[in-house]
Amino acid sequence: MAALPVHEFRKGLIRVRIWRKCTSSGIRHTVSVVRLFRKSDVWNESTRFHRDDIPLVQLVLDEAYIWIFQNQKCDGS
User: Fold this and answer.
1) Which of 13, 23, 56, 71 has a CA-to-CA distance to 40 between 20 and 30 Å?
2) Tens digits of per-residue pLDDT, 13-69?
3) Stated pTM of the model
4) DSSP symbols for 10-42
5) Residue 36's beta-bridge partner residues?
């Protein structure tokens, strides 16, 4: 079973997910950013962005950056 993200932000069709891993050398976070799009009736994700997506990508990454610094505890989740 894949690990679930500890937090997720979404602005429009841009989504960022944050994962946390507690290691012997401390807490580590990883972040993924995707753009949602619909093909027929199915929603998909892409890691390619359009020019007009860039401001939203910056916004969700800024929010992720702040969230990570505010949640540095390794509480087992």
Assistant:
1) 56
2) 999 999 999 888 888 999 999 999 999 999 999 999 999 999 999 999 999 999 999
3) 0.82
4) EETTEEEEEEEEEETTEEEEEEEEEEEEEETTE
5) 45
